[in-house]
Amino acid sequence: MKSGLELRALRGATTASANTGDAIAEAVAELIEELLQRNDLVGDRLLSVTFSVTADLDACFPAAVARRRADWGQVALLDCQQMAVAGDLPRCIRLLAHAWMDPGREVVHPYLRDAARLRPDRADRGEASAPASSPADH
Q1: Strands 46-53 vs 76-81: parallel, antiparallel or unpaired
Q2: Which residue in 14, 48, 70, 80 is deepest, having the highest Cβ count within 10 Å?
């Protein structure tokens, strides 16, 4: 445990423009940057990140993209396939991260690109708006 900090869970999602290594890498890098910037995080405060992808993304591992970050050497990374649900958003990459954060700091969950449809209440820098409108709102 880091002194004076709270362990928090952060969610986020994005979509890749295609099932290519470059498209997936671009989407993952953007999602990671938004997660870090919006939550004022640095690598040593991040414990773990689990990525899940829809079955139509198999060109590369999102964790392999994340592993390229110089400050993520101690971050535990994992990939898995998202549960297949009829009507789910195609080419979707989701993440669940655990990080040490300052007490009382609001967590911002980035939902980018087409994934903003999954959680419209979190799509605009975490500000509340309409409730989620998808059965895949996780």
Answers
A1: parallel
A2: 14
For 55-79, how does the pLDDT look when each residue is reduced to its tens digit (9 = 90+)? 999 999 999 999 999 999 999 999 9
Give the model's pLDDT for residue 3: 82
Residue 75 to residues 26, 67, 119, Cα–Cα distance (Å): 20, 8, 26
- Its pTM stands at 0.87
The pLDDT, as a whole number, for residue 103 is 94
Distance CA 34, CA 40 (A): 10
- Kindly state the tokens that stand for 53: 């992808």
- Residue 93 is which amino acid? I
Counting Cβ atoms within 10 Å, is residue 98 exposed (0-12), middle (13-18) or buried (19+)? Answer: middle
Beta bridge partners of 6: 101
Residue 93 CA to residue 81 CA, distance in Å, equals: 9
